[in-house]
Amino acid sequence: MSKIIGLDNLTVEEINRELANGAKFVVFIYCFSLIIVTFKRSSNIYFIKAGEKTLSKSIKYTLISLLLGWWGIPWGIIYTIQSLVTNFQGGRDMTEQVMSALRQKPVE
Length: 108
Fold this sequence. Notes:
Radius of gyration: 16 Å
Number of strands: 6
Order of helices and strands: EHEEEEHHEH
Largest sheet: 4 strands, mixed
Shape: elongated
Distance between the termini: 17 Å
Structural class: alpha+beta
Helix content: 40-55%
Mean pLDDT: 92
Number of helices: 4
C-alpha cells in the first residue's frame, strides 16, 4: 500500500470518527509526457478530514499535468484532461480500498 499522508498523531478512534463524519482517503492523478510516451501516475494516499478542502494537496499534481502532460500525442491530452477533472473533483476516493487493506493486515 502507498504511504498515507495526513494521519499524523491521529488515533484509530479519531480516524474512525472522522470517517463517520465524511472524511476519506484520496489520491490525486498526474501525467507527464515525453513526446511519444505519456505516463499517468497517482500520488500517495491523502487522508482528507471531513469538510477539508483538497486544493492545497492537489495543486502540485495539477500543475505537473498542466505543464508537462499535454506534450504526448494522443495520450498526453487525454490523460491531462482526466487528471484535471479528477483533481478538481477532489481526487479519486480510495477509502473503500484503504479500509479493506487495513482490515486484511495481520496484527503484529
